[in-house]
Design a protein that fits this description.
It comes from Trichococcus palustris. The chain is an alpha+beta fold. It has nine helices and 14 strands. It is 35% helix and 24% strand. A hairpin with a 2-residue loop joins strand 5 and strand 6. The longest helix is centred in the middle third of the chain and has 20 residues.
Length: 344
Amino acid sequence: MQNKACVRAHTNIALIKYWGKRDETYFLPMNSSLSLTLDKLYTDTMVSFEEDLAGDVFYLNDELQGEKETQKISAFLDLFRKEKKTTAFARVESHNHVPTAAGLASSASAFAALAGAANRALQLHLDPQTLSTFARRGSGSATRSIYGGFVEWDMGTTSDDSFAIEVDDASWDIGMVIVAVNKKAKEVSSREGMKRTVETSPFYPAWTQAAKKDIVSIKEAIAKKDFIRLGEITEANGMKMHGTMLGAEPPFSYWEPDSIRAINIVKQLRKEGIPCYVTMDAGPNVKVLCRLSQAETIKTALLSCFSADKLIITGPGAGIRELTATERSEYQWNESFEVKGWKK
């Protein structure tokens, strides 16, 4: 038996942040969140379940991964094997078009793509909402990458009803300019930073209460297509999240000097009449929510401090999908272990 599929998933950037788990095992969040799926950042993953494999094999960006990383993938695939009632091991080959662990939500697209590929390869026929609960078990933010546009992750009450919901396709001139301040892996991982904040920051209870109000307000803004209000809520919510980290013990911050430079440029652009708003996740990189039609103007302003290779303009992305034959032809499926991963 050999069942395989290749799926693309786009990353997403949370506008109302997911920051804190109430259940570490099932990745249940402390609050509901809302994101924008992006078209320029994505992961392509091929999964092949093969009965003659002696164990799971995992390649990331053409490199065979070690035991620690493979174990994470195996634990995730076990959810799908259990659903299918199979013990077949899998060959997983994934290519990230997102810098890994740099605060650009690479885990969101990675686990959404892996979930989608495993679902199709095993012919489980899970509907998108159910699939989002599976993706959540790999990375909380992956829940939202199942869908495109604006997506809500409803915190739910149990593992079964903590899932993603489509909110809006974001087709009304919505864009984002990403300032890749630092593409290197973070010193404090998102999971470690989240856990430390929840357990030690006195600011955290106020954050969860504010987040509950923010998600109601931002959905109202989206329904009215009120971009100004959307941006104001986005920026305020992100700043509040980062504020909780300064109260943690020991305190920490993901900001770097270039993060502040980018923020100041955005503030100046607003003074000049260009509506644009900042958000940041668990990393130094700055995301500027804007009108897609004004993204080039914003990029030009940012070029005063940042090189062009650090700036990415992106529009709304789509939900997960299987790659077309043309897209698959860009990669060479690794039928043997003589060649590592896919080759462009």
